[in-house]
Design goal:
Blueprint (H helix, E strand, L loop, with lengths): L1 H15 L5 H18 L17 H8 L5 H11 L1 E2 L6 E2 L7 H12 L12
Antiparallel strand pairs: 1-2
Helix pairs in contact: 2-5, 4-5
Length: about 120
Amino acid sequence: MALVVLGLLHVGWRILQPGTTAAPQARAEPAEGRVLVEGSDCMRCHGMERRYVGPSFRQIAGRYRERADAAAYLARKIRDGGAGEWGRALMPRHPQITEAQSLQMARWLLALPPAPPAGEGP
């Protein structure tokens, strides 16, 4: 019985330690990024699973996920646009999107699960 009480006290103490409130906020950030993506014009060219004018979000995540600077790199692409990395289509600039917003969008994108291998899917 004493071990159970000690275990519960230990768990309770760990829960109350400073810094434990960061996890829910970190989980909320990708959701905020999705809201920003859906509120922008991103879905005109990018699908979640399918390539339209530009690559799908999962294709983008798959290509850049392993880069150490992936979030910053994609955030810059969102704001500054680009061309030539996914074919000939141009990605327009989005100067109205702040750096913080573009980082949230990029983090949401990078948190997406990988695309299923070709031939598999829903």
